[in-house]
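Worked example 2:
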Amino acid sequence: MVSCDLGDRLGLATEFSEGVDKSASAKAAVSEPDFEIVEHGENPAAWVGAGFDVATDVGENVPITPGEYGVNEAVLGWIQLVEAFEGNPRLGADRVDADGLNAVVVEQLLGHVQQSRLGEIGVHFNLPLAERTIVLYSTSHGRRTIVLHVDGGVQMFAPIFTHHTVSIDGLDVFYREAGDRSNPTLVLLHGFPTSSHMFRGLMADLADDFHLIAPDHIGFGSSAMPSVDDFDYSFDRLAEITWTLLEELSLERYALYIHDYGAPIGLRIATRKPERVTALITQSGNAYTEGFTPFWEVLFAHAADRKTHESAVRELLEPAATHWQYTHGVPDDRVGRLAPETWLLDQAGLDRPGNKEIQLQLFWDYQFNLEAYPAFQEYFRQWQPPTLVAWGRNDEIFGPAGAQAFRRDLPDAEIHLLDAGHFALETHRHEIAALARDFLQRTL
């Protein structure tokens, strides 16, 4: 497979040939296509002259702004429209006009994306490609056009997600699962104020090569939400629940992906049974005091005097604060990638009766995570787990100094600071997926 970065501004046009094999046997076949990448400039005649059957009425390929209709730098390769298998193999090529690619076509195309990879050409779909597919890219580098030629039909990987609830200590614990259990396992632990929903895209990206488990912590998402009077809302207890879940699932060896609250939970698990943890991936999953920013001042004040500072801390549970968690630190050209249902779903969880009291208790309990940092850092020094750090350099909750601090105890840690905020997966999922895939394939 060819490795290629196709630039940072994409305009797309597609053509599909006749004679696509739509049989069940063809759809069941799994193979890798051969890619040929040729740069020809802007003249469609040059494309035809090079042997590509491109419609002469494609016209000028006007770039689409990154973020528009969800188009972004990571839309790199295998492209397909369902209409190509419904008697209109030329859809796309004949619907480009002076205003650029028809918005309806773009939306239909992106609606069938199953997964994508940076570093490898690949946007995966769940139907076979046409025998000859041509994708035209305009980039910000002088409107250069790259022609991608795919020979041969191919069935793309479409991950199957399953959703489960198990009883742990009398409480319902929800988790998402994807991938083959015979593959290496990656356990994904979410932070505040979200749920396993934050990993929906990343799980699709990695499920072809890895087995993925993403639970909702008690009090979050679709897991049980007992009142603060009926459950010990502490990070010790959340870690115990997660540990028991992994035992129930008979997972003997696994890598951990930790974000925000997932860090103190996951690292408690790692220090309990270090030999079970094959690798660590941290995305704003803090383990050093250097990571704390001014955001934490009111929370640490609340830990020292709950009554005095509770009203200020409660503001962190309101819609404006939840929205800010997703939007701060996001560069202008990536804002369009943020899906509003992310913060709306999180806020709906916070607005459930009794949930704000749960979050206030966990805010207060966070102070005890700092007491666990020496044990976490000793684990790093002694066991040297392979570690990937993929962190938003613009994160105002856990700052980039927290990312760099991992190298103090883990000199071989692979540290990547992305131009992102706290929820980097929402804007840089494809970059993180590529980093994670490469890292896990080398280390597991």
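The two ends are 22 Å apart (CA to CA). The chain is about 30% helix and 20% strand.
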